[in-house]
Structure formats: C-alpha cells, structure tokens
C-alpha cells in the first residue's frame, strides 16, 4: 500500500490529491490513508495536508526502504524482488542465502548499513549507515564460465552512466572494478559466481557506492571519495539506485543478446588506465607495462618493455611513473 500511496503522490507532485481520491484508488478508508501519510512523514517525506484540498508531496526522504525503491520501479522492470534490510553483515551473504533458496534473476538486496561489507580477496569494504548504497543483484545468465567476469565490466558501465546522469560529474572506470572521480574511488564492484562444472548457475554482483559520506577513516582518506563530496550536495540514494537498475537492465539485455562487443566501446570510452603505464598486482606476480586495451572478452592487455603482450585476467591496477 505504501508503494501505491507514494506513486500516487509522486504522479501528482504539482497539485493536491484528495484523501477521497487516494482512498478510492487504494480501496481503503480515509483513516487508513491518513495512517499511510503519517508513516511516510515519519520516514522524512514532506507531505502537505490542507483541508478541503488534500495531500501534496513537496520533499522526498533519503531514508531507504522497500517501498521507496519499489514505488520508483516500472511494472515491467527486471527487478521484481526487492529485499531491503536496515543492517546486514553483507548484502552478498544475504544474496547467497536467497540464491540457495532459488531466488529469481533480477532479485536485489539493499542495505542501509553493512557490518561485514567485503571487497575482493576478502578485503573489507567500509559501509557506514545512512550514507551509502550497498546492494547486490542476483542474475542467472546463460553464459560460459569464462565470460562471467565480463559482468563486472557491464555493471561498471551501468553504474558509471547512472552516476554521470544523476550528478553530471566526470566518471572514470579503472579495470576491472573501480569507479573513480577525480582519481579517487567512489564505487567498488564485486562479482561472485556460483557455477556447475560447465555452466554458470547464478552471479551475485555487489555494488558499493559512497554516496553521501562527508568523511572517511584515516586509512581511506587518500583513496576514497563520495558523490556528495565531489558534487557539493547530497544525492538521493533511492533515485540513484533506480537509475543504476535502469542502466543495468538494458545493458545486461544488450550484453546477453549481442555479446560483449556491444559493451566494449562503452567501457573503453570511460577507461582511465588505457594508454597509461601501470603496475598490475596479481595473486602470483607483479607486472609493469603499458595498458593497451581490453580484448573482446574484457581481459586487460599489458605490453611489457620488450613489446610482448600479456593478458591479465584478474589484478589490482595502479598507475605508475616508473
Ligand atoms: P576491492 O577489493 O577492489 O577494494 C577493497 C579496498 O578498497 C579495501 O582494501 C580498501 O583499501 C578500499 N575501500 C574499502 N572501503 C572503501 C570504500 N567505502 N570506498 C573506497 N574504498 C574503500 C571492491 O573491492 C568491491 C567492493 C564491493 C562492495 C559491495 S557493497 C555491496 C556488496 N556487499 C558486500 O559485502 N560487498 C559488495
């Protein structure tokens, strides 16, 4: 019901909507309408109430909830199942549980805070309350195992485009999973796959976005930033989530039907490492070389000083002067 009330108020944002009209639309009493309005107000939505006129939404909350997300999603959206939690260990862990229970493609888990947010290789992901977007998307694509890492690049393009649209900031992608603004990390993407020996069963794509933080712990100060720090104003998280889901939905569809070659130029247009000398740290070795591009599979290509080209499947990339 809260989803419908929010949708009705939003659809009529520049006028008053009578309690009678809302109760008719919802098929409930006007007392119930009043209760819904009160609970939306408690969450921080500014709703005017004028006798003989009705209700008008004049300001939206940044408090995340299932109805804040669902009320903004189109009916035919891929994302039919939204799980919102105020506090979780990690949305990846919750999503894994849902996968085990048979969750459908397009299921999403969103949290207001993570106490055990994780990055790649078991690293920590700082996920404080009320300020960030901590979200996992479950998909079940029919792709080969070797193609699964491409979903990280698909997601990076979707998130970068959504952030550009919402904030107008210049957004770069550092292979494979970082989104940077002014050289600092604003988004991390973690793609975890569940597979049978020959085929992908499901993929959980974790997306962490520093949205409205105004400060970071000392160890992150030099490398991390948030959208509000870069933009100089707060960003509505639910709005940005919807933009990301919209971008992801059409890019994911294009990827499944046309393959990675559709995504490659979109990714390259935002790549910040290509044409630069980089240090690539893999779990086994450290490479220095020129990042010359990605191949048709999304694998990074590094040229060493002897002109030999090395494919890099997974690594941390640092820009270097040496
Ligand atoms: P990563 O391994 O590339 O980056 C992790 C590194 O980034 C950390 O070691 C630290 O140096 C730095 N870092 C930690 N927290 C932040 C932060 N908030 N902003 C900028 N830098 C930071 C990146 O892994 C993948 C992160 C995915 C996070 C999402 S959130 C939703 C989902 N749930 C979950 O537990 N993880 C994913």
From TrEMBL:
Catalytic reaction equation(s):
biotin + L-lysyl-[protein] + ATP = N(6)-biotinyl-L-lysyl-[protein] + AMP + diphosphate + H(+)
EC number(s) on record? Answer: 6.3.4.15
**Top-level taxonomic group:** Bacteria
Report if keyword Magnesium is assigned. no
The Gene Ontology terms for molecular function here are: biotin--[biotin carboxyl-carrier protein] ligase activity
Keyword Zinc assigned: no
Residues where biotin binds: 114, 118-120, 185
DNA-binding region boundaries: 19-38
Outline the extent of the BPL/LPL catalytic domain: 65-256
Q: Which UniProt keywords apply?
A: ATP-binding, Biotin, DNA-binding, Ligase, Nucleotide-binding, Repressor, Transcription, Transcription regulation
Q: Which family does it belong to?
A: Belongs to the biotin--protein ligase family.
Q: Which HAMAP family match?
A: Bifunct_BirA
Which PANTHER family is this protein grouped with? BIOTIN PROTEIN LIGASE, BIOTIN--PROTEIN LIGASE
What is this protein's name? Answer: Bifunctional ligase/repressor BirA
Species this protein is from: Evansella tamaricis
Its taxonomic placement starts with: Bacteria, Bacillati, Bacillota, Bacilli, Bacillales
């Amino acid at each position: 019901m809260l989803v419908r009330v929010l949708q009705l108020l939003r659809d009529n944002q520049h006028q008053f909507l009578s309690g009678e009209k809302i109760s008719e639309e919802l098929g409930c009493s006007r007392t119930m309408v009043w209760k819904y309005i009160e609970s939306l107000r408690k969450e921080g939505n500014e709703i005017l109430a004028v006798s003989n006129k009705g209700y008008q939404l004049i300001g939206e909350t940044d408090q995340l909830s299932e109805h804040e997300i669902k009320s903004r999603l189109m009916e035919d959206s891929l994302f039919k199942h939204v799980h919102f939690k105020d506090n979780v260990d990690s949305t990846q862990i919750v999503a894994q549980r849902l996968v085990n229970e048979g969750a459908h493609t397009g299921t999403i888990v969103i949290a207001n805070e993570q106490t055990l947010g994780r990055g790649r290789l078991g690293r920590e992901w700082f996920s404080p309350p009320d300020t960030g977007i901590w979200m996992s998307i479950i998909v079940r694509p029919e792709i080969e195992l070797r193609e699964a890492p491409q979903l990280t690049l698909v997601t990076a393009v979707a998130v970068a485009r959504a952030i550009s649209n919402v904030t107008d900031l210049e957004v770069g992608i550092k292979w494979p999973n970082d989104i940077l603004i002014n050289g600092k990390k604003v988004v991390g993407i973690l793609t975890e796959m569940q597979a049978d020996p020959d085929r992908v069963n499901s993929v959980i794509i974790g997306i962490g976005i520093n949205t409205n933080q105004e400060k970071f712990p000392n160890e992150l100060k030099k490398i991390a930033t948030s959208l509000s720090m870069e933009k100089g104003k707060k960003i509505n998280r639910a709005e940005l989530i919807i933009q990301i889901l919209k971008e992801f939905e059409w890019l994911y569809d294009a990827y499944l039907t046309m393959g990675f070659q559709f995504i490659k130029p979109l990714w390259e247009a935002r790549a910040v490492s290509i044409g630069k000398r980089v240090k690539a740290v893999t779990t086994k070795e450290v490479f220095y070389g020129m990042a010359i591009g990605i191949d048709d599979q999304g694998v990074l290509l590094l040229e060493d000083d002897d002109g030999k080209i090395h494919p890099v499947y997974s690594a941390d990339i640092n820009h270097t002067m040496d």
